Amino acid sequence: AAPAYRYLTISEPRPGVGQVTLNRPKALNALSTPLITELNTALAALDAAPSIGAIVLTGSPKAFAAGADIKEMAPLTFSQAYTTSFIESWSALTTAVKKPILAAVSGYALGGGCELALMCDVVYCTASATFGQPEIKLGTIPGAGGSQRLTRAVGKAKAMELILTGKFFSGEEAERWGVAARVFATHDELMAGALDTAETIAGYSQVAVMAAKEVVNKSQDLALRDGVEYERRVFHSLFGSKDQKIGMKAFVEKQKPEWAHE
Ligand code: HXC
Predict the structure, then answer these.
(1) Quick check: keyword Protein biosynthesis in the entry (predicted)?
(2) Helical residues (DSSP H) of 49-177, grouped into ranges
């Protein structure tokens, strides 16, 4: 039986598309440890489900997520944070999930909410979405990769200003600055756009899609020469997949490929 979630809803709104909706409305989807534990469980289940080819992660029209749970963090001591590796489990999303995750961001994406979006593979948002790393106002700093991923996305000049001032930026700016791939006028248009893209991706070979995600993400970690070599090795390895033969044969024969996902 599918696990029941307290802070999430799971659906399959399009063929091959798993949607995870953060559902903690009273706290604007603040990312408590129990919520993140559920999110990791849900994403692992979708990653393992053969019928799912792409994942959409979203919140409500009001909030993607307003940050890590400030009420949970307020009393935390250094030794508790250190010995429990507080926040480390958030990275499961980037290290364990092989299928692409699209973040569809409406409303607030602040602090850990902004970082959660930045961990996803593609970000789409509404023009009026509110992004920001306001941790400085709470006497702390981003702790889930914001100082690294935001800086890679927008460059040091803007990231430094945003993180030192805590000032918010709009979805329209997020798209212009390279945080988001596309921006939409309304929440409904955002969801339709995210699901269209996820459905397109889910229509391709899962092996090739996973490899594509892996090599693009490697570009964030490796120097150019190493990254190009890494890409070539993975490209070579795909000649060992059934789907490369299926895809190229279908092109030559002017047929639609029927992927084996092998
Ligand atoms: C816990 C939160 C919360 C959060 C909102 N709430 N954000 N609870 N953690 N991050 C709760 C409020 O306490 C309130 O609960 C309810 O959600 C509604 O919020 P309001 O403030 O009443 O709503 P509004 O006036 O519309 O203001 C929206 C807001 C504001 C601008 C988004 O809520 C806000 O500034 N939130 C905090 C944003 C933030 O600083 N995020 C970064 C967190 S630090 P009650 O019970 O009062 O109704 C962080 C660290 C990351 O993320 C590092 C590691 C991951």
Answers:
(1) no
(2) 70-73, 78-83, 92-95, 112-119, 146-154, 156-165, 171-177
